[in-house]
Write a structure and sequence with these properties.
The protein is of the alpha/beta class. The chain has three domains: 85 residues, Archaeosine Trna-guanine Transglycosylase, Chain: A, domain 4; 155 residues, Ribose 5-phosphate Isomerase B, Chain: A (3-Layer(aba) Sandwich); 223 residues. It has a seven-stranded parallel sheet with strand order 18-19-17-16-20-21-22, with helices on both faces. α11 links the parallel β21 and β22. The chain is globular, with a radius of gyration of 24 Å. Bound molecules: calcium ion (CA).
Length: 519
């Protein structure tokens, strides 16, 4: 392979090395640029001399200021960059460059499960919600038995999933931050892929009582099902109820009600749904310097296709949007949506400040090994996932978006917390891009994993669903990989194709975001 580097924007003064083994000193690019030293793959080369104090430009944006003079052909390393100030939140342009609506895309459908609340499921799952961590091992035990002894009789149900978590008690449940985990658990309990109603297992003495978790639901207490109820009302089993004598009784009760609910879910069938019923959550994990060049722009192209088909696309990860927020507020469909976006940025700035942290805490050692110098460079690559359409709405952590189209759903960037919060925001398919590699997956929705580099896709051939690295080598384009992704979303949403994460059963633990105090 001849020496190859990628310059994203004409004004960039750095480019990243494409060759999988990096390049030795003396390598000459087609442009005539000669490497003065060896540079590893995905790390940055100076395309021109950069004087001390001058901006280092990638994506057409300043990712930092050189703290020493750098000659052309030299390696621009993390420690040579000073972090710029984040964009000031009070001076951002709001809705000043609203993108024109993209041409409508008609005729794309998937086979999904219709729900009474208007959402569509991409799986048919019995979800067993828990109000508190105390009951989690008991529910896990019951789920093992249900899967072995009952589920095989209900062939239309895909899975039984224990919705366990670390919240529910030992927390300041009325503190301001508590609304986030409670809303998150509530909305996950009503997720489209569990038919809108869970089985609820409660301990009895916990702070998060079932009626507090699901305040708008007509809960069906186990053993008192004599009053009229709707089919979709959740059953509640309380372990401390006097009727349960011993563990055997407790498990028998959970299994009895699981069987009732499984019989209800087994009646459901897939129906043809328009692609506008898709709600696709986007995030990256283990990013590298290629992420912003290959997988994330391809995701952005697929996001635009979904928006054009009338669907919902959510991008998240506040700390990876914060340094690119000035590129997003002009795209807000109106000033209010722009202000909502700023509200979420401010909330997170304050949250980090309370913990004596700032956004520079974001890049991981793996990100840096992958050539990402700082959070600014990471953010500029990350927001490429948001495509080019107007920003239609903003959801606070764990909220369901109020509109379709492109949505910013505020979450931490932490992979498993972001995924959990996007589940609460009712995503029914998840796209996860990675450069360094993560075997991440979620039980409730299919997770399509996209690699930024071909080397990762080859090494993890049975974990990565789409290789976007072909974009860097010129074997594929952003458009072709974007279409491939869009079509795979429809196949996976219809249950016709399995993601690798589902093939292996790789399902990360739910991790609701809890910014509130623990007691
Ligand atoms: Ca992430």
């Amino acid at each position: 392979m001849k020496p190859l580097c990628v310059q994203v924007h004409p004004s960039d003064n750095v480019a990243i090395i494409v060759n999988p083994d990096g390049l030795p000193a003396g390598s000459v690019f087609e442009s005539g640029l000669k490497l003065a030293e060896a540079i590893p793959q995905s790390h940055k080369v100076a395309l021109a001399a950069i004087a001390a104090g001058q901006p280092v430009v990638r994506y057409g944006q300043t990712i930092g200021y050189a703290n020493r003079a750098v000659e052309a052909g030299h390696w621009v390393r993390e420690e040579m960059l000073e972090l710029p100030e984040p964009p000031a939140l009070d001076e951002l342009p709001l809705a000043t460059a609203i993108p024109a609506p993209l041409p409508r895309l008609e005729g794309y459908t998937f086979e999904g499960y219709r729900n009474p609340d208007g959402t569509a499921g991409t799986k048919n799952i019995l979800g067993i919600t828990t109000t508190v961590q105390c009951v989690a091992p008991t529910v896990d035990y019951a789920v093992r038995r249900i899967k072995a002894e009952i589920l095989p009789r209900f062939s239309n149900v895909d899975d039984v999933v224990a919705l366990t978590h670390t919240y529910g008690c030992g927390v300041a449940i009325d503190a301001p931050g508590a609304a986030v985990p409670i809303r998150t658990l509530k909305n996950i309990s009503l997720h489209p892929n569990i038919g809108g109603a869970p089985l609820v297992v409660s301990l009895g003495c916990e702070k998060l009582q079932p009626a507090r978790l699901l305040p708008d639901q007509n809960l069906r207490p186990a053993g008192a099902a004599l009053f009229p109820v709707l089919e979709a009302d959740p059953y509640v089993i309380r372990l401390q109820d006097h009727e349960h004598r011993g563990f055997g009784d407790i498990i028998a009760a959970i299994m009895r009600f699981a069987e009732k609910r499984l019989a209800e879910l087994d009646q459901r069938r897939r129906h043809t749904c328009p692609a506008s019923d898709l709600s696709v959550g986007l995030q990256c994990g283990g990013s590298d310097a290629f992420s912003g060049v290959t997988c994330n722009p391809a995701v952005g192209f697929a996001a635009d296709l979904l928006v054009r088909a009338g669907g919902t696309v959510m991008f998240s990860e506040v700390t990876e949007v914060r340094d690119a927020v000035h590129l997003l507020t002009p795209r807000a469909v109106n000033e209010q949506v722009g202000r909502d976006l700023i509200r979420e940025m401010k909330w997170y700035d304050d949250y980090l400040a309370r913990g004596s942290a700032d956004r520079s805490a974001n890049p991981t050692p793996g990100n840096k090994r992958g050539g990402l110098s700082n959070v600014v460079e990471k953010a500029l690559g990350s927001v490429a996932k948001a495509g080019a359409s107007a920003l239609m709405g903003v959801a606070a952590p764990g909220e369901r978006p109020a509109s379709k189209g492109l949505i910013f759903a505020a979450t931490p960037a932490s992979d498993f917390i972001c995924g959990t919060e996007q589940l609460a925001s009712a995503m029914n398919v998840h796209i996860f891009t990675t450069g360094e590699g993560s075997p991440y997956g979620l039980a409730l929705v299919p997770v399509i994993k996209v690699s930024s580099r071909t080397a990762l896709a080859e090494r993890w051939h049975d974990l990565i669903d789409i290789d976007a690295g072909r974009i860097a080598t010129g074997e594929a384009t952003i458009e072709s990989v974007g279409w491939e992704m869009f079509r795979l979303i429809l196949e996976v949403a219809s249950g016709r194709k399995k993601t690798w994460a589902d093939h292996w059963g790789l399902h990360n633990t739910l991790a609701p975001f809890n910014p509130g105090p623990v007691t």
